[in-house]
Amino acid sequence: MKKVISLSYLFGVVFLLASALYFFASNWQVFSRLEKVALAGSLIVLFYGAAFLLDRVLKGAHFLSNWLLVCGVISFGLSVALLGQLYNSHADSYLLFLVWSIPAFLFSLYTRYSGFYALTHILFHLTIYFYLFPSSPFGHWTLAHTWIAFGVAIVNTLLFLITKKGYIDSKPLLYLSLISANLLFMVTAFDNAYSLFFSLFYLVILGAGVYRYFHKETSVFIILSMFGTGFIIIKMFELMARYVSSLFFVGLLFAAVLLLAGSVFLVNYLRKHSSSRHWTKTIFVASVTTIASVFIVASVFGLLSLLMVDVSMVTLFVFATVFLVTPSTLTSWPSPVKYSLMMTGLIIGMIASAFDDFSFVMFFVLAFVFYVEKRSAARFVFYVLFQLNLGIFIGETLELGAHPLLVVMMLLNIGVYLATYKKHVLQYGAFLIGFLAFFSLTTIDLSLTLHSIYTALFFLITTCCVYYFKKQDRSFYWVSSLVFWFMLIVQLYYDLAWKLVHKSLLLAVLGILFLLLAVYLDKKVGSVQESHSLLAGKRLGILLIICLQAGWIGYQVYSNETLLQNGKTIMLELQPVDPRSLLQGDYVELNYTISQLEDISIDDSGPITIVLRKNEQGLHEYAGVYRFSGKWNVPYEKKQGDVLLNGKVTSSWDNSAQITYGIEHFFIPEGTGLDVEGNVKEAVVKVSDKGDGILVRLRD
Question: Any residues with CB less than 8 A from the CB of 568 and at least 6 apart, and which?
């Protein structure tokens, strides 16, 4: 029962946060700007106030007040995003996440709570991501960005080592830093002038990590193996696109042979050392199998295409199954060789059978392999391949659309799950594939009625699964169910079948119901769990950080409202398009006539101030005068009616410059993008005496 109570609290808090996000993103026009600011402030007060209140009321369940403190920081971030929406600041600007990360970082230093560590890490990396990949359509990746990514990867590596040594007590931060470091190292290793250096550096880091954690930390070794496998395969495709030739594919085949030979010696070494864990050996064999099979398949099809060998798909299928699958299945070759040849044959066979429409034959091959093979990990992979082949076969023979095909796959896997006994490998595969097919039904284009039914059923079933499997202590199933549950919450944000504001109200009701259920059960059963209170002895410091957040919001509202009241009004020509922000809802992306200026001798990026003057049509246009790096391009004295507008040069070429002014995004109520696109032609902008602009409205 205590687990049920804890999950109920979690669901209630998550629903309330999601409800607030959906509501603010909907940009509901019923409320004025200041009323929306008041609502955002109330949300912050609600979470922080509840944290202080429940810390006193629920003495034995301080975990809840700790969660609510984290939710208070999240609600601050939603309020920052709302201010960007109200005053049309950059959508998904890195500044949004930078401001948001500051209180999270302060809370991390002050409380040393794992939740704040994880939140800070995520926000800092979102800041870096949106700095490197700005939502502006004119952003582009440069070598400088590559070095920034490399530097952040180094920092994450050091953070991982510090956390691993125990200087920071946070399991989530340990794995977040490890995953982030590997992702960023991979990003730097492709498509730049120093990719060879970055690739070799990453391989050294991977090798050192694998050697260090081979026997000691299975989870770390698994993550490193997955990234190493992915890196080698992606690098292979990059090199193949660059050096495609028969010699390359022969070399690739030779590399696969060397890899298998080396892996055989290593497997024999592991067998002689009892300290090696079973999962370590399994992951190693899986990595070698994946790399070698991809290399061999790419070599076979690459050589066939380059040499123009006219081989029928039936012949290729027979070769794959008779000379690769069958002997590797029936013999006791070393594991890397056995499974690499087996997977190579299965992949070639599936491709050949799908190409010539005889995929039904693959059922017999897969069934044979599944029956003979006894290792659980291998049988799980074969079951997934069986399901993939089934989807291909149904698509070929019955010509079903996505909807009936997904329904068939879901029902079939439900049947397999119910028919197999507990902890059988088929159950794991059927559970994941069935849920994945079910989730896909909530994402495809269906009628509103069907979409609503599938979404409601998916929510009910995933929620029940989380509760049931948590109570049964079946970790794989309850964690998988919880992941699918969160996937639905994220998917609903981008789902256009019904309005965000309606989804917001529904989620708010569900959140309240779950919290009421949790409180009722908590009183009936008793305290959920003992935990340390973050507020113990630290109330004054936490209140100070909260006041800093309130002060920042108050300052932003005051400065923007002052600009709207006192700024000089100008009108600019524009051209819009329509995407959705990560946190702020729908917006139109604006490109002004002053966004690209000609006859500008700038070969660098940085702040710029341009002079605008009103033309005969009443629109403000570029007057040919600008200030860059503190210098005017021509001697300038301000004339009556001149407006100075600050911007930033993002790129320059051939005496032209692309400039952003911070007024490129205009947030709109959900679903009104098509009404705006192609109809609006002018933007009304307020400009302060300092040259800062704020977008007020659009005009036809």
Answer: 643, 686, 687, 688
Buried b (16+ CB within 10 A) or exposed e, 162-175: ebbeeebebeebbb
- Cβ-contact 48, 72 below 8 angstroms: yes
- Look at the block and give the residue holding tokens 């993002």: 650
Q: Check residue 655 and give left, alpha or beta (phi > 0: left; psi -120 to 50: alpha).
A: left
Residue 488: half-sphere exposure toward Cβ, Cα within 13 Å: 29
Per residue in 502-532, pLDDT tens? Answer: 889 999 999 999 988 888 877 777 654 556 7
Distances (CA, A) of 318 to 253, 353, 370, 428: 20, 10, 19, 31
> Does residue 406 lie in a domain region?
no
- Are residues 561 and 577 located together in one domain of the fold? no
CA nearest to 9, candidates 568, 528, 564, 438: 528
Kindly report the pTM of this predicted structure: 0.83
Residue 648 is assigned to a structural domain of this protein: yes
Q: Looking at the DSSP assignment, which residues form a beta bridge with residue 606?
A: 649
Q: Are 492 and 443 in contact (CB under 8 A)?
A: no
* DSSP run (H or E) holding 243: none
List, for residues 124-183, the tens digit of each pLDDT value.
999 988 887 765 544 567 788 889 999 999 999 999 999 999 899 899 999 999 999 999
Tell me how far apart the alpha carbons of residues 417 and 128 are, in angstroms, rounded to a whole number.
43
Residues 146 and 91 in one domain: no
683, containing H or E segment: strand 682-687
**Judgement on whether residues 4 and 123 belong to the same structural domain of the protein:** yes
Name residue 570's beta-bridge partners. 685
Indicate if 521 and 539 belong to the same structural domain: yes
Contact 71, 64 (CB under 8 A): no
Looking at the structure, do residues 600 and 657 belong to the same domain, yes or no?
yes
The verdict on 197 and 230 lying in the same domain is yes
Residues 116 and 83 reside in one and the same domain? yes
In the chain, the number of structural domains is 3
Convert 481-531 into a string of H (helix), E (strand) and C (coil).
HHHHHHHHHHHHHHCCCCCHHHHHHHHHHHHHHHHHHHHHHHHHHCCCCCC
Question: E strands of 77-166, at which residues?
Answer: none
